[in-house]
Amino acid sequence: MPITPDQQAEIDAQRGESRQTLRATVPGMEAHLYKAHEVLDHGFVRVIDYMGDDSAIVQAARVSYGRGTKAVQNDAGLIRYLMRHWHSTPFEMCEIKLHVKLPVFVARQWIRHRTANVNEYSARYSILDREFYIPAPDQLAAQSKQNNQGRGAVLEGEEAERVLRLLREDSTRAYDHYEEMLSQDGQQGLARELARMNLPANVYTQWYWKVDLHNLFHFLRLRADAHAQYEIRVYAEALCEVVADWVPLAYAAFEDYRMGGVQLSARGLDCLRRMLRGEEVNQDSSGMSAGEWREFKAIIDG
């Protein structure tokens, strides 16, 4: 259960407060504030604060006063131009602060995006909860034979049951020993900063993560992609829903040019032009490696 009754009561109290402000607000985003969007078995994503909206992007691009005089249609066109031509600074005018609860091994992937401000729950000062990520049966898969980073066929039958049993038993045993080492009942008890090293990578941690929209889009482009690991992709997908309500014009442009678009190398573009002229092109005549050609064909053939 990601949220306890006490935590939900605290969230309800936060959402029940209202303050007058002159800053830009977005109704769709206000509906997300403080609310916990559940992810995986014990995780969640919460919006703690945000700054800016679609108008802040075009305002920065035009360096205009206030809301400006341009029509919404023109704002959408400008945002699409900025996205199309890889402008970044106007999108950096919007920021979001999130509270995320996630397994440690997901956090280790997430932290590689170094363009954010992060403050993580400290197991040096506090004791981590007895909460572990245990995959759903349909997420238990063998190693892919084509991709060293990917998954293959889903495990079935006795093998799947054995893996789930081992995950649960090992997680429980490690946490039992963690508590045993920390205990001061009849002993001094090991320091928390040392005892934590015995915990598995599927234990849950929490952090506050603050990032601007430009770098958030970069995160989403990589982590909401179908090829991203499932356990981080579901967090990215939850964030996509939030961002679509926050900056709908910018998110629509992002979906079109980044998520739905493709990037070709100079060789790939040359091959595409040759194909459009009616020329038969294969890997040997493309100048591409086998991997490059496979990816190029996947783009062309859909």
From TrEMBL:
Its cofactor is FAD. The keyword Methyltransferase applies. FAD binds at T89, R112, H113, R114, E120, D212, L213, H214, H218. Residues 1-20 are annotated as: Disordered. GO terms for biological process: dTMP biosynthetic process; dTTP biosynthetic process; methylation. Pathway: Pyrimidine metabolism; dTTP biosynthesis. Transmembrane segments: none annotated. Homotetramer. Belongs to the thymidylate synthase ThyX family. Catalyzes the reductive methylation of 2'-deoxyuridine-5'-monophosphate (dUMP) to 2'-deoxythymidine-5'-monophosphate (dTMP) while utilizing 5,10-methylenetetrahydrofolate (mTHF) as the methyl donor, and NADPH and FADH(2) as the reductant. NCBIfam families: thyX. This is Flavin-dependent thymidylate synthase. The gene is thyX.
